[in-house]
Input
Amino acid sequence: MNEVKERPMARSARTGEAPPAIRKVGVVGAGQMGNGIAHVCALSGFHVLLNDVAAERISEGLATISGNLARQVSRKRISEEERQAAIKRITPADTLDALGECDLVIEAATEKEDIKRRIFGTLCPALRPETIVGTNTSSISITRLAAATDRPERFIGIHFMNPVPLMELVEVIRGIATDDSTFEATKHFIGKLGKQIAVSEDFPAFIVNRILLPMINEAIYTLYEGVGNVEAIDTAMRLGAHHPMGPLELADFIGLDTCLSVMQVLHEGLADSKYRPCPLLVKYVEAGWLGRKTQRGFYDYRGDKPVPTR
Ligand code: NAD
Output
């Protein structure tokens, strides 16, 4: 795949400066979303620096990327040369300071506002003033996160879907201060990744999760109230509504901690009791049963095949 060549971008209304051509992308958080974002960026010709607070998460992330790229080769989606070139474009970054040369940094760390704020507090002073900072948050206000940075004009929501290499959509969310040049540069960047864009206003959980997470939360209430067990609920929605995955299977795939955080943001942000997180979801998270990533959630993944836990 060719190296990325950028066309000139619209200028910032406030500063009059054009945003930098995006060549080098920093990714903060090497979990399931961060490694997926690094994967698609590298495959599209961008140089990627992959950071995490835990060094082992970076090596696990790189191993996951390598395995997923190999699967794409075996399915003839990409060539062996493309796989090797993509891997060479990803460099581990042990500190946020190491992201100083990036033209765009995408934060994909744990869905907790205080964690994200602390990251921006350390990250932004290390960046050039014109560098764009994006967040992959599923639900938190872009305007509020932007206000915690030194660059609200250059801050934007870039919400990838899971699994990143397979899903076609990226939601783009402008904060109140996001300038036109940042918006245009972001859309251009997403186009280079071969993804489609849906633009969402900056309200809790944006579009996809505003609709999806209350459905998952309702499935957990259905389980909590004994209307059906895990198997019945997932089978009902797979075969009765033609969903590719049942809602509880999907919750495990997303991560129950992320599901709970999104419901809390909806509940607090919209102050409507219809978004009340199900107490059973809270209990699973308190137990540390976070779904696939901890091998236990609504299913137990420690054996040969997933076994419902209820
Ligand atoms: P995850 O738990 O798989 O990964 C989070 C990573 O962030 C971990 O590796 C953790 O070590 C790292 N981290 C925590 N604190 C950090 C810090 N201070 N600096 C650097 N790294 C830090 O979670 P995920 O599913 O990849 O979610 C990441 C983000 O993406 C969240 O904001 C989430 O809401 C969003 N998101 C998730 C999904 C999904 O389906 N899981 C979909 C879209 C968006």
In short: The first helix runs from residue 32 to 43. Residues 1-9 have pLDDT under 50 and may be disordered.
